[in-house]
């Protein structure tokens, strides 16, 4: 709370600072949730492609560079992106919870 008071512009009430801070955090939260939805769709798309390739492999097709790229680079990168966004969401939620509640 002291940090909020120290960074507050002169003449601006504390409640306005908290309100603007909450609004900014909520906007960021929405952006992260949108990014997570897109990342989940990308992961699902890559998993489907990978499953198709693995099915072809079980049927006797030879492994190709596309399969190696999907399994070794694209899917892990998409999953890392999703986990990173989830961590951002957790941090934002913690910041929102730390703000004084509205009364």
Characterise the protein shown here.
This protein is an all-alpha fold. It has one domain. 83% of the residues lie in helices and 0% in strands. It is built from 3 helices and no strands. Helix 2 packs antiparallel against helix 3. The longest helix is centred in the middle third of the chain and has 45 residues. The radius of gyration is 22 Å and the shape is rod-shaped. It starts with a helix and ends in a 5-residue tail after the last helix.
User: How many beta-strand segments?
Assistant: 0
- Which range best describes the helical content: under 10%, 10-25%, 25-40%, 40-55%, 55-70% or over 70%? over 70%
pLDDT averaged residue by residue: 88
Share of residues in strands: under 5%
Number of structural domains:
1
**Spatial extent as radius of gyration:** 22 Å
Order of helices and strands: HHH
The tally of helices reads 3
Task: Tell me about the largest β-sheet.
Answer: none
Distance between the termini: 17 Å
- Looking at the chains present, what oligomeric state does this protein adopt? single chain
Q: What form results from the Cα inertia axes?
A: rod-shaped
Structural class: mainly alpha
List keywords for this structure.
103 residues, disordered N terminus
Entry summary:
This protein is mainly alpha-helical. About 85% of the residues lie in helices and about 0% in strands.
Topology:
Elements: H1 2-7, H2 14-58, H3 65-98
